[in-house]
Amino acid sequence: MRREMTPRVEIDLRKISHNARVLKKWYEEKGIQITGVVKGVSASIEIAKALIDSGITTLADTKISRIQKMKSSQLNATYLLLRTPALSEIDEVVRFADISMNTELEVIRALSKEAVKQNKVHSIILMVEMGDLREGIMPEDVPAFIEEVLKLPGIQIVGLATNFACFGGVIPTEQKMCEFSALAMKVQKQFSLIFPYISGGNSANYNWLKHTKDVGVINHLRLGESIFLGRETVNGTPIPGLYQDAFCLVAEIIESKYKPSVPFGEQRKNAFGEKVFFQDRGMMQRAIVGIGRQDVFVSGLTPLLPVEILGSSSDHIILDTKNIHLKPGDEIKFSLDYGALISAMTSPYVYKKYLHISEKDRCSKRRTKRITNISSGDTVNYLISFL
């Protein structure tokens, strides 16, 4: 019997749909609409469709090429570019993104010019800096910024947004959320605007929303990790009622040998410029799986067997298998954190296996094609969907 390809990510669409539906219902009970952030799953068409079928009608990604991919698959959704556009991609942003996040007047002026050229009105959400120090307009500068944007043709401001727990680790406390809500109220009143998107954050906002008695004017959040991994992102705590195992990385044992626990010979730095120190545990049963740092954020993996990850190179992860006998060809499963998920889903060398795919999609024209990567000479398998 032919073996399944490894390494692979097994993706349970039924569990993703469950998480999306539960979160959508719970957030809507507090007046919050949610956007599905699909950057962590490389804008998988199968996963995007599962979110849309679960009632999520807006999808967000940071890559305009992936928004173009989703749009060309004719999925019925509103598409949000989740970061400030680069000046080099203005044409594509206006052409494919329904909404883009923005923080720079120069960029918005370029969007305005291109929107007029394409005979469109491009919608923008202005990002406000609330302390995490990733991107955003300083709060005191927002009114003057809006005043300038309102002068531009082809541009419509549809909201304000802020971000938490991404770069600086600043969390959405009650005080922070009240400050952001008050700012949104102030500028809407000042400019006689009504924002359909007052987007207060992301999956890190779970605890705030659970405990707050007043969401203010905040009516929108952007969720990725909590849908896909069933966790809030401030403490990494599982959210009750959600699945944490919708994704599983499966790797194959390619070597299993009894070896020393400490390298022997004169040591210098490893291939990644690191000076590695080893604990002397005597002889041990060690195994290697055929995946490494090139394709996955190894520190974000947790083996689902009682074995230990000793380290990794670009294409190998070395395990202490303890008392478990593993032989070449055996498979071992790992759970993934968000860093591991986003890297494995992005890699073309990690196969994607979808579980519980709908019968309608199963019957659509799909085939696996072997393609030689012209730039590297590597031959890899791609699953190509014809929708």
UniProtKB/TrEMBL annotation:
Name the record gives this protein: Amino acid racemase
Cofactor: pyridoxal 5'-phosphate
Gene3D superfamilies: Alanine racemase
Highest taxon above the source species: Bacteria
Cited Pfam families: Ala_racemase_N (PF01168)
Domain Alanine racemase N-terminal: 11-230
Keyword annotations of the record: Isomerase, Pyridoxal phosphate
